[in-house]
Design a protein that fits this description.
- α4 runs antiparallel to α12.
- 56% of the residues lie in helices and 2% in strands.
- The termini are far apart.
- The radius of gyration is 23 Å and the shape is globular.
């Protein structure tokens, strides 16, 4: 049986005192109080969880400092921004490939052809969502095309610019002609099934980042499929059974190497880890990760 919630609200000063009572070292209580005013005690709790000696009493391990908890939080925030930077570039690339292959093989309005869909019911729902994005768009080029031409939706190379990653993932997954799906996935050196899985996972990861949710030591509900043979550089590199961030980073590194060969994203990531002296095991990094080919930037 559920019981009534009877915990009282506490001031930020009281929250600092509670942390101190539980064994956290706080050299500057006023500064800690300031951060709690802007970051929320409940939010920071996820970052001091690894420092707890006993979760039942919420007592901290000896030597736990507020500064260390804050360092974990700042790392995670900067990591989310870095992840969004890569996912944005990947999303734009996949939008482009989806539109290019659909238009080239099936015509400018291929997205209106239900016979190209693997699942008609999904096509109906996705088409309605696509139409809603077009109707609500304030982009000048979308408004011009809808005013000028008789088709119910603008051509595929235009609508691709306003569809979100989740819808893009579903539209790609629902392409019936295998040659078209394969043409898109081949751009990234993977099979269509792997490409579908990766897009679905990246949509999930992007939403976590966009809504400021913790990613550093999170166990993901939606995990990416492990490629069996290609790309060669990722063969044997995935942490099997892992639900944490490391496998996602492998995907982002590979895709960034494909779409932006001269990127510095890999170095920015390793610099971020080093700057904050973050223990990578919480993200399921293998002990020898720095020496592996994908982290050295070696091409296939």
């Amino acid at each position: 049986m559920k019981r009534a919630f009877n915990k009282p609200a506490t001031s930020c000063a009281q929250q600092v005192a509670i942390l101190q009572q539980r064994g956290m070292e706080i050299a500057n209580p006023a500064q800690a109080e300031f951060y709690l005013q802007h970051l929320n005690y409940y939010r920071l709790g996820a970052y001091w969880l690894p420092f707890e000696a006993d979760h039942a009493t919420h007592s901290f391990k000896p030597g736990t400092r507020f500064e260390d908890v804050l360092n974990h939080y700042i790392f995670d925030r900067e990591l989310r921004l870095l992840l969004l930077d890569a996912i944005e570039r990947i999303e734009v690339s996949v939008r482009t490939q989806w539109a290019y292959q659909m238009a080239l093989r099936h015509g400018p309005h291929a997205h209106l052809d239900a016979t190209l869909a693997r699942d008609w019911r999904n096509w109906v729902g996705d088409s309605a969502q696509l139409a809603a994005h077009v109707e609500s768009s304030r982009e000048n080029f979308i408004q011009h095309l809808t005013r000028t031409y008789a088709e119910s939706l603008p051509p595929v190379w235009a609508v691709c610019e306003i569809i979100p990653l989740g819808l893009l993932s579903r539209l790609y997954r629902n392409i019936k002609p295998m040659a078209t799906r394969s043409a898109v996935s081949r751009t990234y050196g993977v099979d269509p099934q792997v490409c579908e899985s990766w897009l679905h996972h990246l949509h999930f990861l992007r939403n976590l980042c966009a809504h400021h949710s913790r990613v550093w030591n999170r166990e993901f509900v939606i995990t990416p499929e492990t490629p069996k043979s290609k790309p060669q550089v990722l063969r044997g590199q995935f942490q099997r059974g892992s639900r944490k961030l490391y496998n996602s980073l492998l995907i982002l590194l590979h895709l960034m190497d494909v779409i932006a060969p001269n990127h510095h994203w890999r170095q920015r990531l390793t610099d971020l880890i080093d700057t904050h002296a973050m223990p990578t095991g919480a993200m399921d990094f293998p002990p020898d990760w720095r020496t592996r080919a994908i982290w050295q930037g070696e091409a296939e």
